[in-house]
Automatic annotation (TrEMBL):
Keywords attached to this entry: Heme, Iron, Metal-binding
Domain Cytochrome c: 36-137
Name of the protein in question: Cytochrome c domain-containing protein
InterPro entries: Cyt_c-like_dom
């Protein structure tokens, strides 16, 4: 019972050190520090920080950015601290002005830490810090990545734009004409019928604001507009991807001589009366949009549950547009 409670308290530290896959294994040393160990590490952190923080809070040597950084980069890094062996620990050598690598001492300039400590200006004496290393429990970071880490991510607003232009056979020319404002080249969408979207930072810059708002709704960021990119699947992302995919699929299918979606000779008039032709298109779209070699069952399912109902609602063209949009709104398209 006691062990379980302790384990629960320890869990956040385990994650902080990126050693989640060691969880539950009592004998394994890569379990993260216990609360008592954390408290002792914190004491050393607090004693060293005033002398070190000036140079070590950011970047690859951000040892003093947080207690977690200090523990994973210094305390439990065998290249810097060897548990039980202060004389073999580079940290102790550096503090005492006996560094064996690129630097002889830390801080780099002025008296080394041990001298500052000898003058009584630090929270711990050098002897106390040596004793901390002598009594330190060995722990190693798990070399495996944390199971908590995010493994899939969605296409960014820019990715969506690039992928759709390429996969649908569209380009800026389908939405904008060249314009000029105060002699600065712009692109103007004039009507918003095609639901264009664009980064405000594109060159030439967009004249209207609606394409820019759509881009922001898709999570696109912009430095000049002080807008941070949003990589979540937000309701606004889903709303815009639905509208845009339907409208752009229609544009692509209606665009004369566009081979992106339909093979030469095929027509949006060909409906389920010619099931084999429609299924051949759907099979090609699986590969085109999802890079998936679809089974007959996959193709039959999209045919009967997506294409045919949309055709019955209106006509075959309507069914092609809706099915094309279905492939784009699908998780296999949005995530990678
Ligand atoms: C004036 C700036 C400065 C201060 C203050 C400073 N350091 Fe450093 N430290 C550095 C630089 C620069 C390096 C080398 C960085 C590199 O190699 O990229 C370094 C490297 C280190 C290393 C790595 C040594 C190795 O061989 O891998 C450790 C450990 C370290 N510092 C600890 C400390 C500690 C502990 C303190 C406080 C007692 C401290 N530093 C104070 C600038 C500083």
């Amino acid at each position: 019972m006691r062990k379980r409670i302790l384990f629960k308290i320890v869990a956040p530290f385990v994650v902080a050190l990126g050693v989640a896959s060691c969880e539950g294994d009592e004998s394994n040393p890569c379990g993260g520090p216990t609360p008592e160990e954390r408290a002792r590490n914190q004491e050393v952190f607090d004693a060293l920080a005033p002398s070190c923080q000036g140079c070590h809070v950011t970047g690859a040597r951000g040892y003093f950015a947080s207690i977690e950084a200090f523990e994973s980069l210094v305390v439990y890094n065998a290249a810097v601290v060897v548990p039980g062996k202060p004389d073999t620990s580079e940290l102790i050598r550096l503090l005492e002005g006996k560094g064996t690598r690129a630097f002889k001492q830390m801080p780099i300039a002025g008296p080394p830490f041990a001298e500052i400590a000898a003058s009584g200006a630090t929270k711990m004496t050098m002897a106390q810090i040596r004793a901390w290393v002598t009594n330190l429990e060995a722990r190693t970071a798990d070399p495996l990545p944390s199971i908590e880490a995010r493994r899939i991510t969605r296409l960014s607003a820019d990715d969506v734009g690039r992928a759709l232009y390429q996969q649908l056979g569209l380009s800026d020319d389908d939405f904008y004409v060249a314009a000029s404002s105060f002699d600065i080249p712009h692109k103007t969408a004039q009507s918003d019928d095609g639901y264009p979207f664009t980064s405000p930072d594109s060159i030439p810059g967009p004249y209207e604001n609606l394409p820019v708002e759509r881009y922001a709704a898709l999570g696109g960021g912009s430095a000049p507009n002080q807008l941070k990119a949003d990589g979540t699947v937000s309701p606004s992302f889903l709303g815009v991807i639905t509208q845009v995919s339907q409208r752009w699929c229609a544009l692509a299918l209606d665009k004369a001589g566009n081979p992106a979606l339909l093979p030469a000779g095929a027509s949006v008039q060909t409906g389920s009366a010619d099931a084999a032709s429609v299924k051949a298109v759907l099979r090609a779209w699986y590969l085109h949009f999802h890079a998936v070699d679809a089974t007959d069952a996959d193709v039959d399912r999209v045919f009967s549950t997506v294409f045919v109902p949309l055709e019955m609602e209106k006509d075959a063209r309507n069914a092609y547009i809706g099915t094309c949009s279905y492939f784009i709104r699908h998780p296999d398209w949005i995530f990678y």
